[in-house]
Amino acid sequence: MNWITNYVRPRINSIFSRREVPENLWTKCGECGTMLFHRELADNLNVCTNCDHHMAITPRARFENLFDGGIFTEVEVPTPITDPLQFRDQKKYPERMKAAQKKTGEKEAMLVATGEMGRTPIVAACQDFSFMGGSMGMYVGNAIIAAAEKAVELKRPLILFSAAGGARMQEGILSLMQMPRTTVAVQMLKEANLPYIVVLTHPTTGGVTASYAMLGDVQISEPNALICFAGPRVIEQTIREKLPEGFQRAEYLLDHGMLDRVTKRTEMRDELITITRMLLGLSPAIKGDLPAPAPAAASEDKPEESLSEALGGAETNAK
C-alpha cells in the first residue's frame, strides 16, 4: 500500500460498471421461451408475437382495449361480509385478501364497467385470475348480479370474461350458493331479451364452468384455453386412462360443439362488435369517420379581403 491507494480512490469500476436495468422490462414466453420487450408485449395485448401464446391480462388492460378510447365507468358492487366463516388455513382469510389486494391493486376478483364498444353501449364484467385464482366468492356473485341489473336498467347487452379456478374454499357453502344466484341473474337478461355473451379465457374451471360461464347466448374462447369442471389430472386418476391430446382445451371443445368460436385476443374486439350488433339487429359498425371537409383555401395570388373592403370596392366601382 502507498499514499495513492490510501487517498485516491479508483474510478475505473464506477466508469465502466454496468447500469442497473429494471427486471420487468422483459417477459419470457411460457410456451416458446422468447424474450419479449414489455412495451411490445403490452401493445399486442399480452399475446406472444412469436407463437401467439395468450398470457394473462388484467381486467383493466382488457377494458382499455375493449371500450372506445379506453374509456369506461366502473359499476359499484355491494361489498359482502369480510370473513363469514372465520376461515383459517396456513393464513387467515383476511390476510390472504389483503395480500391479493396489494398484489393486484384491485378490490376483488371481478371488475364491472359500462361504456361503448364500436359505438355500441354495453355492460362488461371481467374476472382477474391473479386475484386468488379468480375464485368465485360472494363478491363475484354480487358483481354478476350488479352487472345483470345494470344491463337490464340500461337495456344493454352483457359481455362477461371468465377466468377462475372455481369456488372460493374460504367461503365454503356461501361460495357454492353463488352458482344459483348467478344463474338467476343470467335469466334476468334472457327475460329482458338482452344478449349475454361469454368469453372464456385460460383457465375457466370448477363451479364457474358449471354456472354462468356456460350459459351465454354465444360462447367464445381464446385459443388453447383450459375449460373444464374437473381438471384432466383428476379425470385421469379417476378413470385410469390416458386422455386424448388437447382434451378440455378450447379447440377440442369447439370441435365437439361446446363453443361457438375460438378467437384470438387481438381480434376479439372486432368479433364482439360484429356479434353484438347482429344480436341487437343493428347495422354493421362504422370502422372510422371521414374527416370533416377543410374550409376553402384563399387564393395564393390574391390575399383574402375582409367583407367591408369588398363592399367598399364595389361602391367605388359603382361610382
List keywords for this structure.
319 residues; fatty acid metabolism; metal-binding; fatty acid biosynthesis; 2-enoyl-CoA Hydratase, Chain A, domain 1; alpha/beta; 2 domains; seven-stranded mixed sheet; lipid metabolism; single chain; 12 helices; 9 strands
List the helices and strands and how they pair.
Blueprint: H1 3-7, H2 12-16, E1 26-28, E2 35-37, H3 38-43, H4 59-66, E3 73-74, H5 93-104, E4 110-117, E5 120-127, H6 138-154, E6 158-164, H7 172-176, H8 178-191, E7 196-204, E8 218-221, H9 232-239, H10 250-255, E9 261-262, H11 265-279, H12 307-318
Protein name: Acetyl-coenzyme A carboxylase carboxyl transferase subunit beta
Family: Belongs to the AccD/PCCB family.
Function: Component of the acetyl coenzyme A carboxylase (ACC) complex. Biotin carboxylase (BC) catalyzes the carboxylation of biotin on its carrier protein (BCCP) and then the CO(2) group is transferred by the transcarboxylase to acetyl-CoA to form malonyl-CoA.
Short description:
The chain is an alpha/beta fold. Helices cover 35% and strands 14% of the residues. It folds into two domains: 26-55, no CATH class; 57-280, 2-enoyl-CoA Hydratase, Chain A, domain 1, CATH 3.90.226.
Describe what you observe in this structure.
This protein is α/β, with parallel strands linked by helices and 319 residues long. The chain has two domains: 26-55, no CATH class; 57-280, 2-enoyl-CoA Hydratase, Chain A, domain 1 (Alpha-Beta Complex). Helix content is 35%, strand content 14%. The chain has twelve helices and nine strands. The chain has helices at 3-7, 12-16, 38-43, 59-66, 93-104, 138-154, 172-176, 178-191, 232-239, 250-255, 265-279, 307-318; strands at 26-28, 35-37, 73-74, 110-117, 120-127, 158-164, 196-204, 218-221, 261-262. The protein has a seven-stranded mixed β-sheet with strand order 3-4-5-6-7-8-9, sandwiched between helices. Helix 6 (138-154) packs parallel to helix 8. The longest helix has 17 residues, at 138-154. Its EC number is 2.1.3.15.
